[in-house]
Write a structure and sequence with these properties.
heterodimer; A: alpha+beta; Ubiquitin-like (UB roll); Alpha-Beta Plaits; 9 strands; 13% strand; disordered C terminus; B: alpha/beta; Rossmann fold; two-stranded antiparallel sheet
């Protein structure tokens, strides 16, 4: 049974990628150093498959790579002009649906949404803007919530529930009215036991969950994605972002 | 770069912007002399020409916040073969658009009428010379068709130079990762 020891492979854009049984396309790709764009995926959590940024074509059919189990010999297309166009379109829809004013956002330069938009060459939001009304929550002494930038990835919900065991966050509503809420009687973050050392602090890919009084400490040019594109530095170390903002 | 058969005519303007993008444009420094071998300016804050004639290229800074902005933008669109949005405000409304979730009447009331420290009898200005503000601040692509976008707050002089030289040479403008930023 020497075949058992042979590393099984599948193909991403014509390149052999090894995988372990039970892995998803995303996990195997990241392990092999092949970047597939993603926002709602995090290696520590059960995949969500909701942002659709990681959509690839498997044997010609579109699928989200974070939820797709690998099978030997599978042929995946990822970095094609067509898929990049689709991903750019998804980003544009995320940008116009919220209020993403990068120049006045302290996450700018460390933001995954922005970094992906740079990487995919998003020169404009293309669509008409929604300009929604989403008041901020500054009630917590150390943490600011700016819902204007929320893309509903649910990473904070998952981190706060599964790791921090605090269940501070949840999504409420359906369809276009879906939004992030805080699980306290008042609905305010100041009335929860959220702390700056929680994992939920560090997983937000955009600028919703921010530590107060550290914004703009890192000068332009030295921020995470200023000089190196996200596709060339995609480790999801749990505390990477938190360290950035400390 | 070879000089085109004739100089390209270029118009620029700032709508609801801060002129920061124009200042950044001047950061191309002495390269502006090289640029002037290839282009000539029509309507622009640099020439003080008040209306736009037929142009090859129009460059718009700022979003659309009032009725005058709409007229100027439409004049540019009618006269320019290629129209470019430059800077965050032209691209997505930018800082002025952060009023968009508020009611315009409420804003004007507070700023000119009810906020503390105003002179007695202060009212919302109502001079026919003043263009009427719009309900929201609009990115320019939501008002007219825009051919190219150059994001940044502001885009750097180098990014503007790369963008313009690409365009003038007939290439699709392409920014490197370091030139590409939204802030």
């Amino acid at each position: 049974m020497s075949r058992m020891n042979e590393q099984q492979v599948f193909l991403i854009d014509g390149r052999d990628v090894p995988f372990a049984p039970g892995q998803t396309v995303m996990q195997a790709a990241l392990d092999a150093g092949v970047y597939i764009p993603h926002l709602c995926f995090h290696p520590q959590f059960k995949p969500h498959g909701s942002c659709k940024l990681c959509t690839v074509k498997v044997n010609g059919r579109p699928a989200t790579s974070c939820t797709l189990p690998v099978a030997a010999g599978m042929e995946i297309e990822s970095e094609t002009a067509e898929l990049k166009d689709k991903r750019r379109m998804l980003l544009q829809m995320l940008f116009v649906e919220g209020n993403h004013f990068c120049p006045s956002c302290e996450k700018s330069g460390n933001c995954k949404l922005q970094a992906l938009a740079y990487d995919l060459g998003m020169m404009s939001p293309h669509y008409d803007h929604f300009f929604p009304d989403r008041p901020v929550d500054a009630t917590h002494p150390e943490i600011l919530l700016d819902f204007n930038r929320c893309i509903l990835c649910e990473l904070c919900v998952r981190a706060s529930g599964e790791v921090d065991r605090k269940n501070v966050f949840a999504l409420s509503g359906r369809g276009i009215t879906k939004h992030l809420i805080v699980n306290s009687e008042s609905g305010r973050l100041g009335d929860t036991d959220m702390s700056t050392t929680d994992m939920a602090m560090s997983v937000c890919p955009v600028g919703v969950i921010l530590k107060k009084r550290v914004g703009f400490a890192v000068p332009v040019g030295q921020r995470k994605y200023d000089t190196i594109p996200i596709s060339e530095q995609f480790g999801d170390a749990p505390n990477a972002v938190l360290e950035q903002t400390r | 770069m070879n000089a085109p058969a004739r100089k390209l005519r270029v118009a620029t303007t700032s709508l609801a912007g801060c002129f920061g993008c124009h200042m950044s444009f001047l950061d191309i420094d002495e390269r502006i002399l090289k640029l002037l071998e290839l282009i000539e300016f029509d309507r622009s804050p640099l020439t003080d020409i008040k209306h736009c004639g037929p142009c090859d290229l129009g460059i718009i800074e700022g979003g659309v916040c009032n009725a005058e902005n709409v007229h100027v933008l439409r004049e540019f669109r009618a006269n320019c073969k290629i129209l470019v949005a430059i800077g965050a405000c032209a691209v997505n409304g930018g800082l002025p658009a952060q009023r968009n979730h508020l009611d315009l009447r409420d804003i004007l009331e507070e700023v000119y009428h009810t906020s503390p420290g105003l002179a007695p009898g202060s009212q919302i200005p109502n001079d026919p010379e003043l263009p009427l503000p719009l309900d929201k601040v609009y990115p320019i692509h939501e008002v007219v068709k825009i051919d190219y976008f150059l994001p940044g707050c502001p885009p750097s002089g180098d990014a503007i130079w790369k963008f313009l030289t690409d365009l003038i040479a007939g290439r699709t403008p392409h920014l490197s990762h370091e030139m590409m930023h939204y802030d």
